[in-house]
Amino acid sequence: MRDLQGKVAAVTGAGSGIGRALAAQLAREGCSLALADIDEAGLDKTFAQIADATQAKTFRVDVSDRQRVYRFADEVVDAFGKVDVVINNAGVQLKETLEDVTYEDLNWLMGINLYGVIYGSKAFLPHLKKQPLANLVNVSSVQGFFTNPNSGPYCISKFAVRAFTMTLAQELRGTSVKVSCVYPGGVETNIVRNERFHKVSRTDISKEDEVALFERYIVWTSAERAARIIVKGIKKNKQRILVGPDAYFYDIIARIAPMIWQHLLSRM
């Protein structure tokens, strides 16, 4: 999709981080926007930033609620008459071992990170297929390339999003819907600040310590730059969109030396 002017884009997780930055970038591209999040206060802030630039409407959506996501898809088409771009971006983080993680926490994370993507894809696909050219974009992570101790639930969800999206791209080849999977590296968002934290590998590290380490050593890319990269990838109909220089490094190292990299991550 070379030109986004006049297109309608739906974005989940639009109340902060990459989702908010995507809303601003898509508005600059001339899109009308359907913005979804469970955080209504965050949505209001996003809307305030873009309301003067484009036509936009906000929707309170829990992406883990299948019926609500399907209603959201219908509401978008009712409000705008169509939908051209869907970005399933909403995501959460959890720090716990796979041995000790509760099923409640596991269901919470999978409901948002994995089923939110599945619901969003399946609910919007019939509407997207009515357009001459449309884009379905699912956000995975570089942790869909490798695993980290105590991030198992998050890694599982992002590996699964990767597999789901890659398969969907194969199945929709030759249709009007172009499918992209996004792999952000360390992006400046609140995902670590807002995570459910139980423990990391080093028991002497608190959540506050982890946030500080993440922001100092892991963050390479601003949310605004991430949004520009993603939108550029959408306009080029790229199936794989790597976000940040670290994403390119992780992609390469996970291909050429996967087991060495896994051992290093375990020690780090």
Report on this model:
This protein has 268 residues and is α/β, with parallel strands linked by helices. Helices cover 49% and strands 17% of the residues. It has 10 helices and 11 strands. It has helices at 17-28, 40-50, 66-80, 103-113, 115-128, 152-171, 207-218, 223-235, 245-256, 258-267; strands at residues 8-12, 32-37, 56-60, 85-88, 94-95, 134-139, 177-184, 187-188, 196-197, 221-222, 240-243. The chain has a 7-stranded parallel beta sheet, with helices on both faces. The N and C termini lie far apart (41 Å). The model has no long low-confidence stretch (mean pLDDT 94).
Which helices and strands, and how do they pair?
Layout: E1 8-12, H1 17-28, E2 32-37, H2 40-50, E3 56-60, H3 66-80, E4 85-88, E5 94-95, H4 103-113, H5 115-128, E6 134-139, H6 152-171, E7 177-184, E8 187-188, E9 196-197, H7 207-218, E10 221-222, H8 223-235, E11 240-243, H9 245-256, H10 258-267
Parallel strand pairs: 1-2, 1-4, 2-3, 4-6, 5-9, 6-7, 7-11, 8-10
Helix pairs in contact: 1-2, 1-8, 3-5, 4-6, 9-10
Distance between the termini: 41 Å
Q: How many strands?
A: 11
Number of helical runs?
10
How would you sum up the global shape? globular
Q: What is the share of helical residues?
A: 40-55%
- Report on the biggest sheet: 7 strands, parallel
Mean pLDDT equals 94
Structural class: alpha/beta
Q: Uncertain spans, ≥5 residues at pLDDT below 50?
A: none
User: How are the strands ordered across the major sheet?
Assistant: 3-2-1-4-6-7-11
CA radius of gyration: 18 Å
Beta-strand content bin: 15-25%
SSE sequence, one letter per element:
EHEHEHEEHHEHEEEHEHEHH
